[in-house]
Amino acid sequence: MTVLISIILMVVAAAFVAVPFVRPEPALAGAVTPAGREERRRFERQKADAYAAIKEAEFDHQMGKLSAADFGALRQRYMGRALEALAALEGAAAMKPRQLPVPGRPARIAFCPACGHGVPPRANFCPACGRSLKEEPESRKRKAES
């Protein structure tokens, strides 16, 4: 009788351990669909194109090829496109859970804060404008302010 009970207990334990391997994984609530990835790429491209157009218009204005009125109109139009893309990207980012940075390790900067150009993973300077991407320590910031 004890042999039968021990066999039944082993079968139950084996079934309990094997259930996660057999059962299909439920769909994640925040999973990104291929259509969602494509839409995100479209908005990323729209943002990058708008930033590039603004940069080009600023360069043309500085070179004297573009009047101040034309520059203002172009800047407004492309800023609207960039803001539209940013709003769409922010909305998509708000729906997915955010990952907190690991303490003690600086967060990676994906875009230059000065010009908005995409930055390679281990870059120390922006490839477009040359600005340093290293964050200043708090002590330096405080010294500069005083």
Summary?
This protein has 146 residues and is mainly α. It has helices at residues 2-22, 34-63, 68-95, 138-145.
Provide structural commentary.
The chain has 146 residues and is mainly alpha-helical. Among the domains are: 34-93; 109-146, no CATH class. 60% of the residues lie in helices and 0% in strands. It has helices at 2-22, 34-63, 68-95, 138-145. It is elongated.
Helix-strand layout with pairing:
Elements: H1 2-22, H2 34-63, H3 68-95, H4 138-145
Helix pairs in contact: 2-3
Attribute tags:
146 residues, mainly alpha, 4 helices
Number of strands: 0
Span of the ends, CA to CA:
85 Å
The radius of gyration computed from the alpha-carbon positions, rounded to a whole number of angstroms, is 27 Å
Which segments are poorly predicted (pLDDT under 50) over 5 or more consecutive residues? none
Residues in helices, as a percent range? 55-70%
Counting helices, strands and paired strands, the structural category is mainly alpha
Describe the biggest sheet? Answer: none
Count up the helices.
4
Helix-strand sequence: HHHH
Mean pLDDT: 79
The shape is elongated
